[in-house]
Protein: DUF4371 domain-containing protein
Amino acid sequence: MHQAIASTPGDNVDNAVRRSPVFSLVLDDSIDISNTKRLITYVRYIEDNKIQTKLFRNSEIVDGRADTIVEDVKQLLTEKNLDGNNLQQFALLEQLLCNVVQSRSC
Structure:
């Protein structure tokens, strides 16, 4: 399933993100059924004066450490030929949810 999802984003999304004056990334790490650590990346960008949110990449990572995630994001920016100066924010989904619900367990 992860591989099917991973192949969904295409050149149209890549080009739209490059044209957008700004974009942000939302990251979610998970473990799939084969016990493989995955980093799911969503991109938010502006297209036709509307904010779009799309699945951008589904990659295998060795662990969920911050330095591993940062390196994956750097690799993504390079592979997609994106201007890092236009990256306004990136956040882990878990952190965003904790901020929304203000849970003490986060």
Summary: The helical segments are 2-6, 11-19, 66-79, 93-101. The mean pLDDT is 81.
